[in-house]
Automatic annotation (TrEMBL):
<dbReference type="Pfam" id="PF19783">
    <property type="entry name" value="DUF6268"/>
</dbReference>
<feature type="signal peptide">
    <location>
        <begin position="1"/>
        <end position="20"/>
    </location>
</feature>
<keyword id="KW-0732">Signal</keyword>
<protein>
    <recommendedName>
        <fullName>DUF6268 domain-containing protein</fullName>
    </recommendedName>
</protein>
<feature type="domain" description="DUF6268">
    <location>
        <begin position="46"/>
        <end position="252"/>
    </location>
</feature>
<dbReference type="InterPro" id="IPR046235">
    <property type="entry name" value="DUF6268"/>
</dbReference>
Length: 295
């Protein structure tokens, strides 16, 4: 029975490697970001839950899926900003091991992003992309990829470079550059500290009946210090504190969008929102994850 359980966990880990660079199979993440506009103090709270599921494994091919749930609460923002906002996602990925050191991954995602007042086909967003990965040595692996997302505000491209560099047993540099790089120093087998940068762009469709399909676009860049603690071999608790370097909350009318954005930077003329709030402030995060130990 234990052997079967371990094999199942191995399959889960392989599936998670298809979808992301980390080893997490299940994650619950909560973050709070402070902000100020005019003379008003406000904050946002975001809950993220992810579960990775194995689908197929055979020699050089691995396939998996990730189910995700997101909830964004906006506190003390103008009434025009609907509250709360929800995201439900399903991502599928396929990994082909070209050689022991080279692999190619393809992924697609569909998601419902809405205030759930009413739901229609306009509330769905879609993404697709690829990543080519090369293991240079036992200490260094890199990957190059491109993701495309059909957002409510237009077309979004996210070029990225995956890095997993471990120059020693204590130090590691990993993540997707430039959107989510992370540097960690490992004090002990269980305790690590580090620095992380995170860039995110998202959009949520509002009610068709009450809001005529308006949508909210959220852009955020955060920098933080991070503390990670592993326990019970497979579990990890982490805490982060830092600053939202930039927060942007824009409210738009429903319109035909043909604009392009690179990560969070628009190409060409910027669209004119009905309302816009730009701010920066304190950022806190707390999370717990389950995965196979890398030890």
């Amino acid at each position: 029975m234990l052997k079967n359980l371990f094999h199942c966990l191995q399959l889960l880990l392989l599936a998670s490697a298809v979808l992301a660079q980390d080893r997490d199979l299940a994650t619950v993440h909560y973050a709070v970001a402070g902000m100020k506009y005019n003379d008003t103090t406000a904050h946002t709270a975001q809950l993220d839950v992810k579960l990775r599921i194995p689908l197929y494994q055979k020699k050089k091919i691995v396939a998996g899926a990730t189910l995700g749930y997101k909830q964004v609460n906006l506190f003390n923002l103008p009434a025009d900003y609907a509250n709360p906002l929800y995201g439900f996602t399903c991502q599928g990925a396929w990994l082909y091991k070209v050689t022991p050191r080279r692999s190619l991954a393809l992924f697609v995602q569909a998601g419902l992003f809405t205030d759930v007042k009413d739901i229609s086909g306009k509330d769905f967003r879609y993404s697709a992309g690829f990543r080519y990965r090369l293991k240079h040595s036992e200490k260094l692996s890199t990957g190059w990829g491109l993701a495309y997302s059909r957002q409510f505000f237009g077309n979004q491209l996210v070029p990225f470079i995956d890095v997993d560099y471990r120059p020693s047993e204590q130090w590691s540099i990993s993540g997707q550059f430039p959107v989510k790089p992370k540097i960690l120093y490992r004090f002990t087998r269980k305790l690590s500290i580090g620095l992380e940068l995170n860039g995110e762009a998202a959009s949520y469709r509002l009610s068709a009946a009450a809001r005529e399909n308006e949508f909210i676009q959220i852009n955020q860049w955060t920098g933080l210090s991070r503390l990670e603690y592993q326990f019970a071999n497979a579990w990890q608790l982490y805490f982060g504190i830092g600053r939202s370097l930039k927060q942007s909350y824009k409210l738009f009318d429903d319109a035909s969008q043909t604009r392009w954005t690179i990560i969070t930077v628009p190409i060409g003329d910027k669209p004119s929102p009905q309302r816009k709030i730009d701010s920066a402030g304190l950022y806190l995060q707390l999370g717990i994850s389950f995965g196979l130990s890398g030890n």
